[in-house]
């Protein structure tokens, strides 16, 4: 099944020219000092608040004017240009983003006291569990005599201890643990939901989750199948043109066969298959999806390529239809049933605005409690070892299946050669002047009116045509059985790369789970942090990964079982048809049919016109004279080596009527 490519450094967005007025306006908003210090040591004397804020500072309250922002980590090195007020940083640096998405792909950020513009595509935000909501921030101003040193120290130590265990994110932002949304799901907040935003009276919209977005894991763990399995056929490719012949493309007919005899047929281009795959990757990034056939521009209208793509698309869509979660998704249902172009475009926009993507998939997974025992690391390790073993051994299977296909192709070619050679013999085709291969009745004989040779000639011609039918059966068997077998086996050539996302997700979650289990220090407790909820989230990820491992196991069993059955059924049917053809050819030589062949003249075979296209490759016969000449030459070579040369020459010449010249030394074996 295909792997995700490591993304390259994104291009720098178009420059955003910022004046001094715009640059300084957003960073002077005051924020009260919380219990976590912003500086290594407080200033010796408090700084008064800016008068323009319009706030009166109560007696005994100290407030500092500090930038308000959101922490982000740099993904790539960026060298900014000072004349455009761009901020320079290195990969891994922590930035304080003051204004997000300022304009045209830029944000305002601060680093080491320097403020400037940073490209949005070069940074990723860091969620902090101990971040205090703005609504309660004003009530937590630093009171000089209100909080004791011991209380603040305990609270700070708890937050720092928690961040050291849970709050840090992986620096490798390209690992599957990150890209599938697992890390974001685990570190979103501590109560199992997204951080709530302040709602007004006008915010009455409630996000409704459809039944197709709810997924259930049963004991095992394994996916609960909410819809029955169905079969999909991709067939009847058609080449079409539009824009007056300026654009050409291939249409595939996709027919879904549902239980109860229900059939639905639609027409789809490869670009629509590609759209389906990309949308499924965005929505179900935590699941292992089958690979999509690769694009090809050169020779894309070649018949062999179109049939190869058709078979690959059929395997792709059927594996989606067998997946217990993808099977009932709105995306797949829409792809297989929508027949209106206007409806397709309307639904396409709806799917592109879907909000249940990435890590939100885990928020709608339901499973029994205690369904997984401490992450079940042993199962994942065995699964990984099995995948590595399979990846090491599959090249042998692929090579053998390809050799089997090649041998069948060679058998087909040899059957045709035998057929054409027999036909050439009995017809005397292009034998040349001065040669007579047939009599006036077309029989393979020099006698005119020879009934026996006419019977033989027509019977041999029937055998030749039967051998052509056998060769046709070989060709059909290769296309219908050997090629699909090789392609199905080739899909399992790299099982490790296919299973790597699941293994990476599980291992990354297991590490966080063990960190939580080892965090037994009571100082790590924080009123804003629920480690039990984070542990529960880890359990949800474990259920998803182990359910996918179970699904991959069942898919492999189904694939190899069905492929082997189809191979054996094809072999049985193939050889039964060959046996029938050979029996019919053999019956031609039995009386009374054989004797009646001479009652009518021989008719020209339809294969005679193709004899010239088959040029036989004849082995050159070796005569005794050539061997004698070789020994004469050998004798001449060794004449100048004295008595040893004479001995070798006599021995070589005497070996012509025997076996080898060395039998006199070693004896006959």
Instruction: Please give the radius of gyration in angstroms.
Output: 40 Å
Question: What is the CATH level 1 assignment of the largest domain?
Answer: Mainly Alpha
Mean pLDDT comes to: 76
Structural class, judged by helices and strands? alpha+beta
The main sheet comes to: 5 strands, antiparallel
Distance between the termini: 56 Å
Globally, the shape reads elongated
Order of helices and strands: HEEEEEHHHHEEEEEHHHHHEHHHHHHH
Number of domains: 4
GO cellular component, one term: plasma membrane
Protein name: 8825_t:CDS:1
Keywords: SH3 domain
GO molecular function, one term: phosphatidylinositol binding
Structure, described:
This protein has 669 residues and is α+β, with helices and mostly antiparallel strands. It has four domains: 1-41 and 58-129, Roll (SH3 type barrels); 222-366, PX Domain (2-Layer Sandwich); 383-613, Arfaptin homology (AH) domain/BAR domain (Substrate Binding Domain Of Dnak, Chain:A, Domain 2, Up-down Bundle); 624-666, no CATH class. Helix content is 45%, strand content 10%. The chain has 17 helices and eleven strands. The chain has helices at 20-24, 134-137, 149-167, 176-179, 182-186, 270-283, 303-322, 330-337, 341-352, 360-363, 377-427, 451-490, 495-518, 531-587, 624-638, 643-654, 663-666, and strands spanning 70-74, 94-103, 106-111, 114-119, 123-125, 215-218, 222-223, 231-242, 247-258, 262-269, 365-366. The strands form three sheets. Strands 4-3-2-1-5 form a five-stranded antiparallel beta sheet, with no helix packed on it. It has a three-stranded mixed beta sheet with strand order 7-6-11. Helix 11 packs antiparallel against helix 12 (451-490), helix 12 (451-490) runs antiparallel to helix 14 and helix 13 runs antiparallel to helix 14 (531-587). The radius of gyration is 40 Å and the shape is elongated. The protein starts with 19 loop residues before the first helix and ends with a helix. It comes from Paraglomus brasilianum.
